[in-house]
Amino acid sequence: MKRPRIGVFKFTSCDGCQLSVLNLEEELLDLVGLFEIAFFREATDKPLRGHLDIALVEGSISTEWQRSHVVEVRERTRYLVTIGACATSGGLQALRNWTSIEDYKKSVYPSPGMIETLPCSTPISDHVYVDYELWGCPVGSDELSETLASFLLDKKPGIPGYSLCMECKRKGTPCLLVSGSAPCLGPVTRAGCGVLCPSLERPCYGCFGPREGANIDGLLNVFRKKGLSPHECSLLLDKMNTYSYRKARSREGRL
Amino acid sequence: MKRLFRIDYLPRVEGEVGITAEIQDGEVTVRAAVFEAPRFFESFLKGRHYSDVADFTARICGICPVAYQMSAVHAVERIFGIEVEEPVRQLRRLLYCGEWIESHSLHIYLLQGPDFYGAENAWSKREYLPIAKKGLSFKKLGNRILTIIGGRPVHPVSVKVGGFSKLPEKKVLRSVLPDLQKAYEESMGEIERAARLSFGENQMDVECVSLRDPGEYPMNYGNVASNKGIDTSMSGFLDVVREHQVGHSTALHSEMRKDGLWNPYLVGPMSRVNLNDEKLPAEIRARMKECGISLPITNIRMGIIARSIELSYAFHEATRIIRGYEAPSMSCADFKPRAGEAAWITEAPRGMLVHRYELDDSGYVKDCTLIPPTSQNLGQMEIDLRDFIRSHLDKPVDFLRKESEKIVRSYDPCISCSVHLVVREENKTERPPHGVR
Q1: Chain B CB within 8 Å of residue A123 CB
Q2: How far is CA B36 from the centre of its chain?
Q3: What is the pTM of this model?
Q4: Which of A195, B6, B18, B128 would give a disulfide with B432, using CB separation of 3.0 to 4.6 Å?
Q5: Which one, of B55, B144, B143, B146, lies nearest residue B95 by Cα?
Q6: Who among A26, A111, A121 is closest to B245 (CB)?
Q7: What is the interface pTM, i.e. ipTM, of the complex?
Q8: CA distances from B161 to B66, B342, B343 (A)
Q9: Does A234 contact B at CB distance below 8 Å?
Q10: What CA–CA distances, in Å, run from B278 to A56, B25, B218, B273, B302?
Q11: pLDDT digits (tens, 9 = 90+) for A156-168
């Protein structure tokens, strides 16, 4: 059987999700046996030619060039999979979306006129059709393996859409929201991290983005009762998945 | 006659960078065109709470997030006047060892390594495969340390101002010891392998800069020192360094002031080894001697030797820390936020990472400066490329292009890190058509 061709692409990001592909370590070499790595700039000199069966896309769209490049990647690809918070949700850099980009440029660069960037940082799905979205900052390696394995088995990858709380309960991790006063985003956040923060006695800070049907304002009301100001509440949501949390809130019709 | 060559997009480096070289009448101009899209970290950090700073800046780089967390928490702790307990200090050092192991083995085995074997990547050549496998097993061990302390290898979550959210269990830490011992022994052989690679002749007269600490090989503490006489405190260093915009280039470069002049300088493993070799364990120093490694190393292509030495050191140091670890009385120090300003520098795998914060009295960021290692090395890298091309003008362009790629890779640039100071090329039509062709 001909090995499926896979490509790894980078847009605006920290490279951490591509690194998660490399972090499959020994599995990486198995991967090389099962797939043809047709394009992966961080790991190989090979230029891209022809069509791809899977494109793993890291990073958000934040420049004009990227906007056309992602269309090109889409056209070459059978299944486009976004990996991580930037590609799936715009990333931390989407914080610029809620402010004036000109002010941002001025505060970082001596010659702001020379900076070429779009006013907003947006997820890949705002630009092209995405087949599967993998969340996380960085992307979860289990979800990554699951997706690649599913492709070989010709089945749909099992990516959870339920909340982190479900995972927490299953693991028997004490609830930080109930037992303490920690503002944990678990109830509105997707499972997938394996209860990383609550296991380390730290409230969830939303790496995996809003779960399906999240009642965000309901949770924020709880935080308000615990003494957080509205400003503090919004800072909690304005992190790596700011774009998606705000979008989910506006779907609830409360923003 | 005018000749021009361009590498649109350099593979096997972290992030997006290209090279343009222009050769006219024996004069060579080189531009390292960084075209990674800017992300404005210094802008959106303003107005954020001090407790966000470590998590946010970690997202600058997926390969060295711990470095960002370390520089960030130490700077904030300095403002708040927090002294962490010794075991916390040691655990942070252990976490850093994990990151040095992960980052160095990535670079030695997957990014730069294939260059010495004429391979396009780590898996395409049969003879290189066992070497790559060894590298991946080292990398995995580094990631295991990161995961035990921080929950995951990329953007670990337990580091916070004052200490950790939760401490690792002693017995879990100790479970790594056998693998660490094995890796340490293997890595000593790898120092020899690195030393035996063939490097072109290329002596650089560059100022090597790194932290230097009286008690230990530098990671989180020390003064800033150089081989040409600099010895200053961390905040003093900020007075002699500037981020300077270069007219012909797309990126800002850091320069250091000396005798009234601004000069490029070099940070990273080569500088650290050159300036701190007496802090390395006797066993490693003996090994270096056996392998014929003489210091200072002045050829950046031999950076892989310095990196291999530090890889061994990180295994050795991680073992030492775990053996001696006793839990602190509390995972996180008690403190109250207060207004102030402070700078802190730690040694990221690729060199000094400078953070400076100004906080208001509730602990919100008023202003900040971040200077990653890569931007400090860009100036020297361009000079090095220029000198190389100048002395090989009779060679075909293909040769120059391949060798230039290798030179850039030997600097281990981390372009994602340098994003905040990336400026696009002024002439739009010259923009490298990176990506799919």
Answers
A1: no
A2: 18
A3: 0.94
A4: B18
A5: B146
A6: A111
A7: 0.94
A8: 13, 14, 15
A9: no
A10: 45, 46, 12, 9, 19
A11: 998 889 999 999 9
